[in-house]
Amino acid sequence: MPAPPMIPGCPPGLEYLSQIDQLLIHQGVNLVEVITCCVANSMFEIKNSMGQKVYSATEENDCCNRNCCGGDRCFIMTIADNTGCEVMKLIRPCRCSLCCCPCCLQKLEVQAPPGVTIGYVKQEWHICLPKFTMQNEREENLLKICGPCVPCRCCTDINFELMTLDETSTIGHVSKQWTGIVKEALTDADNFCVRFPMDLDVKVKAVVIAACFLIDFMFFENSLKNISQLSVDSIEATWLQELRASQKCLTSSCSKQEQALQASYHVAHRIAEDLILPAAIDMAREVLDQSSADKLKTIPLSNDTIRRTIQEMEALAAKDMVPMLHKTLKDAVKVVNYIKRSAKYGRCFQKLCIDLGSEHRGRSLRTTQHICWHPVARLPLSHTIRSLSGSNMAIQAAWTPTQPTSCPPGLECLIQADRLLIHQQHEFLEAITGFETNNSYEIKNNLGQNIYFAGEQSDCCSRYFCGSLRSFIMTIVDNANQEVIRLLRPLRCDCCCTPCCLQKLEVQAPPGIPAGYVIQNWHPYLPKFTIQNERGQNILKISGPCILCRCCSNIDFEVKSLDETYNVGRISKQWSGFGNEMFTDVDNFGVQFPLDLDVKVKAVILGACFLIDFMFFEHTENN
After folding, report:
1. Cβ distance 73 to 94 under 8 Å?
2. Are the C-beta atoms of residues 558 and 392 closer than 8 Å to each other?
3. Computed from CA positions of residues 201, 173, 126, 89, in that sequence, does the dihedral angle turn out positive or negative?
4. pLDDT digit string (tens) for 278-332?
5. Is the whole-model pTM more than 0.90?
């Protein structure tokens, strides 16, 4: 499907939503989930009214959260277009959905593009009806969604009406479609239809789509339990009826396809036999002689011969492609080696790039491994080239049009820093009442100057019931109150008995663009972590002491190389006095790293400090 033109003010990738008033959302069936009953990450296909795939949505979650929290689990849903580019991100924190917890009801943040908030979906408190409010990026109410009192019906659709703020008129709906007794009983895969006005703002349409996913997780992710309450006789009767209808439709469809395929063979064979071959025989008889015409009569025209000829042509093309690829690469290396001979050639090459309008101006030299970058998508093609050629080609040097490493905006202060001080601020309401509040921190340089401020974003229900294991979003802003770093921590375990669901922290700088990850490593008694870059490659290790409780002394977590042979830095939990340690959970930290360390890695180590604080020192008051 061709990409629609750019629209001013529309988030990139959502231009197609301006042309439609209906979308179909189909959840994929996971066979492993059906067989083992272990909940897997949900995947959806978003299609237009003609069944053409427009977007694909994928849940990002861990198995412990999926199987323990069920439909109430927190998640990050990424929505990508047909080219694989992420156009939307949905963030759902861990919250309640019961009427007895009106202060911690469901909330979903919608980002498009990722990192830029365009709206929210908030659950409204109601004693019996499921109700939601659509909000814009300024949290101003726009629309309402109201569902039925009992969102469970057999053999019929379930509609959630999209209404105006005063709930007097309906402008659309989110409809959960009935997919058949077999699919409803054996899987939790659901199909939805979303309708909205054609002239509705694109951002609001994106928020309505996000509301569909929230409704699915809240009411239909555990549809298997609801269907299982039906009587066996009704399930068997409906099942047999649908199976007979499906069998009849499948038989009719298969017979029609076989007949159409057989007809196409007759047409192709008839054209070759009655038209092409007689004309060729006549031409050979007139131009050459009768013997040549007789030889043409021996040409077979069966379908197997034609198919075999096409396969032989395909194999021949694949065989000739590898030598051509080798020759092209060798010619490219010759050109690059010629450019490398003098600076004059390099300047000429730079001028050539400018004249051609290329965004690349420099040339980098590789002597150990050939790396080729796609000029548009920035995708490494070296592995693809080797897989096509079937051998590791020894290329001494090649020009790679890569951009120089740039510092994320707002992190320039970390370039000249090798030490940071993190001071958690006192919350007097928390100290007096004992109610846990959002944490806030001041981040200072070694001179004591404030350079950043960090604030936690989580709900009170998550803080009270999950404690230090709670999921959160930590925003780090500079002195101009501009958000420069965002930390995302999902709800996961940290005990040694669940090695598959250990802690993970995503560091984004700027918000929406991953800069790295902090991954907890399994160990029977030592706290260990791995620092990864944005591609998930391991860079550094963090190792802590066996006993994380020392009186009148600091607690050090060493930042080490991957082989853990030498230390390159330290995250130190500083002793802040007996009174402060005894009556509050306020902590002070010192972070040290090499001065010449990459800025993004410094930001990830800073994120690791917050993860360590929550995991090991947030509950010191209880101890």
Report:
1. yes
2. no
3. negative
4. 877 888 787 778 887 787 777 766 555 555 555 555 565 555 555 666 667 667 6
5. no
46: domain range? 15-230
Q: Where do we find the tokens 């301006």? A: 18
Strand ranges inside 352-416, DSSP E: none
Residue 400 inside a domain? The answer is no
Examine the domain organization and report whether 22 and 124 are in the same domain.
yes
pLDDT of residue 64: 78
Give the pLDDT confidence score for residue 254 in this predicted structure: 52
Last residue of a domain, one of 203, 230, 257: 230
Of the candidate ranges 65-79, 91-105, 367-381, the one whose mean pLDDT is the lowest:
367-381
Yes or no: say if 46 and 53 are a contact pair by the CB < 8 Å rule. yes
Instruction: Tell me: do 512 and 375 sit in the same domain.
Output: no
Tokens of 568: 């390159």
Contact 206, 118 (CB under 8 A): yes
Closest CA to 512 of 481, 476, 486, 475: 486
**Helices (DSSP H) in 513-560: which residue ranges?**
none
Q: 């963090």: which residue's tokens?
A: 542
9 part of a folded domain:
no
Helix (H) and strand (E) counts in the chain: 15, 24
What digits encode the pLDDT tens for the residues 149-196? Answer: 877 767 788 999 999 999 999 999 999 988 777 667 667 778 999 999
Secondary structure of residue 150 in the 3-state scheme: coil
pLDDT at 367 (0 to 100) = 35
Residues 117 and 258 in one domain: no
325 within 8 A of 317, measured Cβ to Cβ: no
The whole-angstrom separation of Cα 153 and Cα 229 is 12
Both 341 and 440 in one domain: the answer is: no
For residue 558, give the H/E element and its range: strand 555-560
Of 91 and 389, the one with more pLDDT: 91
